[in-house]
Amino acid sequence: MSKFYINKLAIVGLGLMGGSLARALKAQGSVGEVVATGRRAASLEKGLALGVIDAWTLDMKEAVANADVVVIATPTLIAEKVLAELAPLMTPSMIVTDVASVKGNMQRAAERVFGEVPANFVMGHPIAGSEQSGVEAATVDLFLDHRVILTPLSTTAEPAIALIQAMWEACGAEVVCMDVAEHDAVLAATSHLPHVLAYTLVDALAQNGSAADIFRFAAGGFRDFTRIASSDPTMWHDIALANKEAILQGIDDFSAHLDKVRAAIASGDGDTLYATFDRAKRARDEHFLGQYLSRQKKSPSS
Amino acid sequence: MSKFYINKLAIVGLGLMGGSLARALKAQGSVGEVVATGRRAASLEKGLALGVIDAWTLDMKEAVANADVVVIATPTLIAEKVLAELAPLMTPSMIVTDVASVKGNMQRAAERVFGEVPANFVMGHPIAGSEQSGVEAATVDLFLDHRVILTPLSTTAEPAIALIQAMWEACGAEVVCMDVAEHDAVLAATSHLPHVLAYTLVDALAQNGSAADIFRFAAGGFRDFTRIASSDPTMWHDIALANKEAILQGIDDFSAHLDKVRAAIASGDGDTLYATFDRAKRARDEHFLGQYLSRQKKSPSS
């Protein structure tokens, strides 16, 4: 990685993701200047005050001028507008990437703006985050030991892919390449659907007449189960709409399965219930045992 | 609490709950002898080897002879059989309690066995646990700073309630009394329903053709969301059947809410989605902010 260096990094939309990227690259000495732009001067000014960025401007043209790398880190549905603003400012030596959670939507947006996805636009998605948001939540190690999925097309330039890969690896992430549709299906299952379910459950309970008691007696299991329902509503509103088809499919698969479990409870079919719960436990333990054990060491009584 | 002391504690069903109770009471010097009984000699022998109990026997009569307190800590659906075995062995000076997660079922079982719930049977439910199970997972602090709900009836003896309350307070728990039906409704919402949903989601995903990829790219949010799906299938099979009506009601409320969210995604109704997600975030943050912040300090980048 020693040859990897970004002279000027421009971040469009300075929040948890863009801020954490800036912090990590600065800590590694992998970046010269970090300039951020966006719609809200307050966030940008906060980023400057926290030392996350070196400068900010509300002017996109100024922000990206002479940038080696431009990272689009706005909410998903705003990214298309950003691409349109960026289009006339892009140069052949400028590499553009993004951090949006849905990639099919981003590909379609780029196709609408550019006709075809530019060779120096490398679509990406760091699988990291927090139920906190905003530049003030940015940390130097948000991406450390996390995966970053890149979804380059056959027309994406190899050197551009290599640079974006090196950028994330400098943050301590493991980079994996994946097909756009596969990315969106996998993320719908493991991230988008669980968020929808958690939001739905908490909102349903909050509207229950006994909501105060319900939350009062909620234990650690409920707290963990609903942690993702504390995530940024704007971001998840965007994701739910951007990855609509895959999420609807996920909801339908889940609902069909829940109907079967409901029928087993209603009819007292203990064998089906036990088999379902046991399969789920085995699947989860098989896939998470390593991570699970390391968490247990930290909180043995949780 | 200095006057509180149990000369002989009998535990029927030695697992995580009974074992942790024994460890906590021993650590506090609040108990003389702890004798356990159950169906599996191996678990009982393990408890003895680990120093959790002082003695064990497969003979219920021997186990409860001269016990001040008998704790029924078997899986929920076995408790009725235990009550039936215990009935001829109970003496007026013996106080019986249980730790089952469903109380209406336990009340009906006691009524079937005894005609009416005995005055010295104090139904209880510690809101503590872990996705681990078995006596080997028992810890001295499982109940520390957790709530224990007692659901005494109007016919339950006050001194019996006071002693069981003192027993749990000696373990560091906060004791709350609640109506049986209210307990079962609240626990269905905050614990039983989330477990059913988590098991259902993990099992649905495990049966997906892309299961390996799905689990491979699952991040921290998914791991937390599904942690409770690693819980003991036998225990949750029992709970799902024992609290059937309240859980079915919870599933139906949840499904109706999910249908609305699904419709909003399908029709691109961003306002409804944002309002739902935002209400959920506010409700959760309002109820959990204290606990949430203390967790965040431990793992800032999770």
UniProtKB/TrEMBL annotation, chains A, B:
<dbReference type="InterPro" id="IPR036291">
    <property type="entry name" value="NAD(P)-bd_dom_sf"/>
</dbReference>
<dbReference type="InterPro" id="IPR008927">
    <property type="entry name" value="6-PGluconate_DH-like_C_sf"/>
</dbReference>
<keyword id="KW-0028">Amino-acid biosynthesis</keyword>
<comment type="similarity">
    <text>Belongs to the prephenate/arogenate dehydrogenase family.</text>
</comment>
<keyword id="KW-0827">Tyrosine biosynthesis</keyword>
<keyword id="KW-0520">NAD</keyword>
<dbReference type="InterPro" id="IPR046826">
    <property type="entry name" value="PDH_N"/>
</dbReference>
<dbReference type="InterPro" id="IPR003099">
    <property type="entry name" value="Prephen_DH"/>
</dbReference>
<dbReference type="GO" id="GO:0004665">
    <property type="term" value="F:prephenate dehydrogenase (NADP+) activity"/>
</dbReference>
<dbReference type="Pfam" id="PF20463">
    <property type="entry name" value="PDH_C"/>
</dbReference>
<dbReference type="InterPro" id="IPR046825">
    <property type="entry name" value="PDH_C"/>
</dbReference>
<protein>
    <recommendedName>
        <fullName>prephenate dehydrogenase</fullName>
        <ecNumber>1.3.1.12</ecNumber>
    </recommendedName>
</protein>
<dbReference type="GO" id="GO:0008977">
    <property type="term" value="F:prephenate dehydrogenase (NAD+) activity"/>
</dbReference>
<feature type="domain" description="Prephenate/arogenate dehydrogenase">
    <location>
        <begin position="7"/>
        <end position="295"/>
    </location>
</feature>
<dbReference type="InterPro" id="IPR050812">
    <property type="entry name" value="Preph/Arog_dehydrog"/>
</dbReference>
<comment type="pathway">
    <text>Amino-acid biosynthesis; L-tyrosine biosynthesis; (4-hydroxyphenyl)pyruvate from prephenate (NAD(+) route): step 1/1.</text>
</comment>
<keyword id="KW-0808">Transferase</keyword>
<dbReference type="GO" id="GO:0016740">
    <property type="term" value="F:transferase activity"/>
</dbReference>
<dbReference type="GO" id="GO:0070403">
    <property type="term" value="F:NAD+ binding"/>
</dbReference>
<keyword id="KW-0057">Aromatic amino acid biosynthesis</keyword>
<dbReference type="GO" id="GO:0006571">
    <property type="term" value="P:tyrosine biosynthetic process"/>
</dbReference>
<keyword id="KW-0560">Oxidoreductase</keyword>
<dbReference type="Pfam" id="PF02153">
    <property type="entry name" value="PDH_N"/>
</dbReference>
